[in-house]
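Consortium newsletter contribution from the modelling node. Members have asked for a concrete example of what our holo predictions look like. Here is one, prepared for the zinc ion complex that several groups have been discussing at recent meetings.
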Amino acid sequence: MKCRECFQFIIDYVENDLTAEVRTTFEQHLADCQPCLDYLESYRLSIKIGQQVCCNTENEALEEMPSALIALILAAKKKLE
Ligand SMILES: [Zn+2]
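And here is the predicted structure:
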């Protein structure tokens, strides 16, 4: 599996939508590829923070997070290209 292919599977992986076969191949690639692992981590973080923002409307500080997150994700994505 190449990084670009791996990248397409990240969302499905996080949502647990991959077949067992693809999932295994994906995990083998991740074990060997730090940039993809970084991207996966930042994707997971963005989901987590997204949920916090939704459930925590009183905390205005969180409104600052999305732009920082986008930068983080773009930086991780750049490493893949
Ligand atoms: Zn990779």
